[in-house]
From TrEMBL:
The species this protein was found in: Pontibacter anaerobius
Domain Inhibitor I9: 53-136
SUPFAM superfamilies in UniProt: Protease propeptides/inhibitors, Subtilisin-like
Source species taxonomy: Bacteria, Pseudomonadati, Bacteroidota, Cytophagia, Cytophagales
Keyword Translocase: no
Annotated Low complexity bias: 166-213
Keywords of this entry: Hydrolase, Protease, Serine protease, Signal
Domain named Peptidase S8/S53: residues: 234-446
Active site location: 243, 276, 434
Name this polypeptide is given: S8 family serine peptidase
Signal peptide as annotated in the record: 1-17
PANTHER family: PEPTIDASE S8, SERIN ENDOPEPTIDASE
Pfam families, per the entry: Inhibitor_I9 (PF05922), Peptidase_S8 (PF00082)
Amino acid sequence: MNRKFTLRRSIALTALAAAVSLTGCQKDELMENQFAEPQAAFSSQNGQAIEGQYIVVFKNGNLSASNNQGLKVSKVEAAKMRERVMSASNVDSREISQVYEGVVNGFAARLSQEQVSEIRKNPEVAYVEQDRIIALAPSWKTTANGNGKGSGDGSTETNGGKGNGKNKTTEPAPTEPAPSDSTTTEPVPTEPTPADTTTTEPAPTTPAPAYTTITPLAGETLPWNIERVGFGDGTGKTVWVIDSGIDTDHADLNVDVARSFSFIYGNPSIEDGFGHGTSVSGVIAAKNNGSGMIGVAANATIIALRVFDDAGAGTVSRAISAVNHVSNNGKPGDVVNMSLGSGISSTLDNAVQNAAAKGILFAIAAGNSAVDCSGTSPARVNATGVYTISAMDSYSRLWSSSNFGAGVDFAAPGVNVTATSKNGSFGSGHYGTSLAAPHVAGILALRGEVLSQGFVTEDKDSTPDPIASVK
């Protein structure tokens, strides 16, 4: 069950409001090419280290697969450890931006080089990692309101398969039959070989979990991207969206405001000022209510975990807090969508891996840099229940800007995708693996696993990605 240790490089921008801020110049630069070739949802600053900001992980909070000793600390014990480490290195509590208590224990803070050196020597500290930017490019917008229909319906190949969220091993059936061997001269035997009764019985197969089918109500828009992967009734299913928040008043979304949370220091609002989280949520779960569009797991409950501000700026340290939160408050079978990523972060990877070990399922964007995703987190997590998703167009071709590699488990629509928007409407014109991942999040909510229908063409690695499907 090996899955290429991978990661991805996707989203980017700036740090915590109290720690790192974007200059107007930087924002203008990101806006410059807004209407050129679609930029998907990632900024060129993604993955940059944040000067003076660090993530500190305690030894008994480092529950990675290689160090999974079942060690857990209570919140009280974690707080005591944090106080000891901070006191020993003269860290002022006002410099703390995130507190970790869960699958990862530790904190994120503004630290001097002297403090970092002291903390690294502390016997209770596993390691110190520099915080990084994760950010969304400000070109996130719809190009049209209305039915949002894309052109083309994609391939109808039905090379079935199931994914386990760990590796991509299924080869597509050859398009032409293999040539016969003209040197073979043995005649066909006149007597059939007796059947081996010990092997003729087909191996038992486990049927895919059932899901509730649904018929779109009159007035409902069924976009090409939703039709391609399939859809069903997600009523009663829960999907945690780690993103820019959600438009809680959107008539097409079921948002659990009570369980939603913002990890932006000093800003408790979960409202989506940027638009990305609202679009992701619609692909996952837009209601079958006779208006707007329908999502893959229509009517499912969305919980907003906000890590990006109104400018699309976030940090790895916030994303770790959000995964910790899901691990502490979610339940097996819940789904998490992470349409984000940065440079390599062992802490973020470990948080995802340990949450997945509890039976929580993850759909993660592969990234939009047209590179092998093995250099970005958290896509490189090698764990059951963690799915890394590339983007394809309506003709089943891998999108030219999609990341690729052995770490990718499935492809899903990510070109001219129709999604909900933060102004209460919906529209087409969305691009990127940020949109591909929520299709799989919806499938996971419906079935708890991912099936496939065909394979992408023009893949950049040696193994074409299977196309995610609900059936």
